[in-house]
Write a structure and sequence with these properties.
Elements lengths: L1 H24 L6 H8 L2 H14 L7 H26 L4 H8 L2 H8 L7 H6 L9 H12 L7 E5 L9 E5 L9 E7 L6 H4 L4 H7 L2 E5 L15 H14 L2 E11 L1 H10 L8 E5 L5 H5 L9 E7 L7 H13 L3 E7 L11 H9 L2
Helix pairs in contact: 1-2, 1-3, 1-4, 2-4, 3-4, 4-5, 4-6
Length: 358
Amino acid sequence: MAIDAIGALLSPLLGTLDRVIWVQRHLHPPLAAQLGETLAPATEALTGPLQALESATWPDDLVFLRERLVDVTRQTLDLTGAFVEAAGSGGDPFELYRALRRFSRVQEALYPLAPVLDAVSRWFLEPGRRDDAAFIERLRAGAMRENGPRAGVLHAHNERNARGGFSLYVPEAWDGQTPRPLVVALHGGTGHGRDFLWSWLREARSREVLLLSPTSQDRTWSIMGEERDAEALRQMVDGVGERYPIDRARVLLTGMSDGGTYTMICGLQDGMPFTHLAPACGVLHLGLLAGGLERARDRPIYLIHGALDWMFPVYTARMAQEALTSVGARLVYRELPDLSHTYPRDENARILDWLLTP
């Protein structure tokens, strides 16, 4: 009975989480009402299976599983309810973003069930790897092993009420010996690395890529004044490299919004370990335009911006494209016609294809 209850809940739960990803990717304040309609059915879809799961008879050794699924489902209902309410109250963009910010906590609570439930493990993979049973078994075995380097989602002084720490994902299926690329992903203004990690985890897990998600020293990155973050980022990368072999020819710095702006500021500084830069939805800082942009010559840069961006209008990205091209950067420019000011998770696979190309 407990197994049946799990199966009855997982399908609508994971389906709802897929819809959250879609809404997050297409978040544009003028479309708030339509986006709210996408998530509104979640209450009806989840309430009945949740009640059935809670009332089922559970063996003592599976109680932890029930408690975790109940927690994840209730958090999901809270998220969808908050978003639908915000969407129906005028679509204030900051209320919409605030509701979706809960999604990282939902994923963090769900992820420990991946070694136990194949459906959850598959959900945390790119679609092309979800039917690879051998790979899923390697992930499970790696998550359960007691010897060797620590794998999975790790945190270093990175509670959500703290600044300056980082979260790290070490692929469970990796042998821990073959050098792997490193993605360093920078959150947006007022964000947190513990949350932004989940914007990249599917792809990092699927491609066996190390993923480092730092938290800025202050409420955002050092884009307006005294430099506080660059040296900390360099030390983080060095610290990860002391414990895990990194492919030093493929160290990507990427980021969203303020994180995208800081990707260029930090990534073009002398002495930084980053080989590739992929800023998303940020701006090219005036300080770089005034001097220093020549360091972008021959640098691989993947620049992403949305045509619907309401915070940093798309003409700022076109100016950046022109400036970077003029100094000889090895630029890929991706202007996405349906992207507003939100992180395009569906671009991660293309970025990794670009990063991993010999």
